[in-house]
Amino acid sequence: MNLAGEIRSFFKGDVEVSAKARDEYSRDASLFRIKPEIVVFPKDAADVCNLVSFVTKKKQGGAHVSLTARSGGTDMTGGPLSDSIVMVFTRYMNRLKGLVGEYVVVEPGMYYHDFDKETKKHGLILPSYPASREICALGGMVANNAGGEKNLTYGKTARYVKKITMVLNDGHLHVFKPLHKGEWEEKLREDGVEGDIYRRMHDLIISHRAVIEKARPVVSKNSSGYALWDVFDENRGVFDLTKVIVGSQGTLGIITDITFQLIRPNSYSALVVLFLDDMKKLGGVIKHMMRHKPESFESYDDHTFRIAVKFFPEFAARLKSNFFKLTISFLPEIWMMLTGGVPKLVLLAEFTASTEKEARRMAEKAEKDMRMSFGIRTKIARTNAEAEKYWAMRRESFNLLRKRVRGLRAAPFIDDLVVKPEQVPEFLPKLEQIINEYDDLIYTVAGHMGDGNFHVIPLMDPKNKRMKQTILEVARRVYDLVLAYHGSISGEHNDGLIRGAYVEDMFGKDMYRLFQETKHIFDPGNIFNPGKKINVSLKQSLANIETVSQ
Ligand SMILES: Cc1cc2nc3c(=O)[nH]c(=O)nc-3n(C[C@H](O)[C@H](O)[C@H](O)COP(=O)(O)OP(=O)(O)OC[C@H]3O[C@@H](n4cnc5c(N)ncnc54)[C@H](O)[C@@H]3O)c2cc1C
What we know:
By secondary structure, the chain is of the alpha+beta class. The chain contains 22 helices and 19 strands. The longest helix is centred in the C-terminal third of the chain and has 21 residues. The chain is globular. The two termini are 34 Å apart. The relative contact order is 0.14.
């Protein structure tokens, strides 16, 4: 019996090997394409357990087999791609299992937009949603430690994960949550896989305190590496392994249930839009705006602006709003394009409060300060529809690039850089200087200004023979620049195949060894998503880059 046949003999969900299924799951939103041998759709956690046990045994018998989890498949790093078994959660394991108070239990395959509709009925949200909120699912948000436009105030997904149920290499379900002193001490005495993991992770963290603390990122967001620095809070006596599981890209085990603590957002918001022509003013603008404490502070550049106007019909379709009304609201942008008045950078600062009056007051105060102090063009969005237009330009830019630019393809490989916000005015021109040296790179820059986190998405011709070489050169130079500022190579998108080879550069040899040890403690057989995040072969990664657009 072949592998798929063997799996069918015990698996309740679907097992597919058709060319169509293998093709459909060979891509995410990254540059890569890897065809899985088998695609499976588990019905429930028992299916996941049985499959993990099966794969463990096969691997012990010497078979080339592994398990890679996939939720929405919107990863930009190649995280959910594999040539072995890909396990897709969105078909069946997509239920909201319970919502009590502000706590919600959910399966990893639930799409964020479905989840959001449900939680909003209770006046609650998970505020760490990414710009891909319409297409991603919760399993991927947790496994990537996703973040988004509300990060400045609310932080990333890790902050909201209160419990994770995960299948470990023994094929059993294990629950991870923050443990207080007596609880984790008891775990250290426990037999079996879980006790072993707690003992070894505790030892690792205690005996390498200094290395781990030194490697703690100094920027406000990071999804690179395993967040070992957040596991043991010695002051509070709390030991919390969810901190390394979140952001681990499915390399430590398979998540079957997540408990989130949600927040009750402010009911009213007002948006200040700044049109910046002179980049020399950026430093002052960031500093002043941060004093006004916006809930979000986002940005997009002139390339993004032009693409949004150029592909206006697609854009309008995405917004699902009245085409005529939207066209009218876009007239100022069209006018700017025609008269050559496109700003170098558009900055969005959102203020929220429990009353409309208060949100408006905060926005007006900030807007006046920006206008008076810097003499820049500003406006306050008058209606929700107008605010939505600016948000859509910010959120949808990458999606438009992925779908619309004929002959060229979006090439995310320096897509998630982070430096301290106060370093941005010095950092951005240096970054642009590097990219501008390459004639074959057209690109957009959008990002989370308040966090110093930038998404640079070049457009490249896949048929260009120099493409891989350019990627290698530019990535090396850009990551060297980021690291010279003690920044992070990934604020939220994670490492996967595209950045795995740079993780050691970011954290240093000693910390990298602890990452390898962490992977080994959880997954000694290397069955969970091997070759991602750590132990990544750059050569192998490059071989998987799709060089012909299909
Ligand atoms: C247009 C666009 C905009 C984006 N904007 C943002 C952004 O603003 N912020 C941001 O953080 N990201 C962004 N992303 C990247 C991506 O959408 C997010 O990281 C998202 O959270 C991934 O979710 P997913 O369900 O699609 O995950 P997938 O792509 O399915 O998987 C992501 C990773 O999680 C692992 N995984 C999935 N399910 C499980 C499971 N059950 N158990 C263990 N591991 C699992 C996979 O193996 C993979 O390594 C963007 C992507 C696109 C295409």
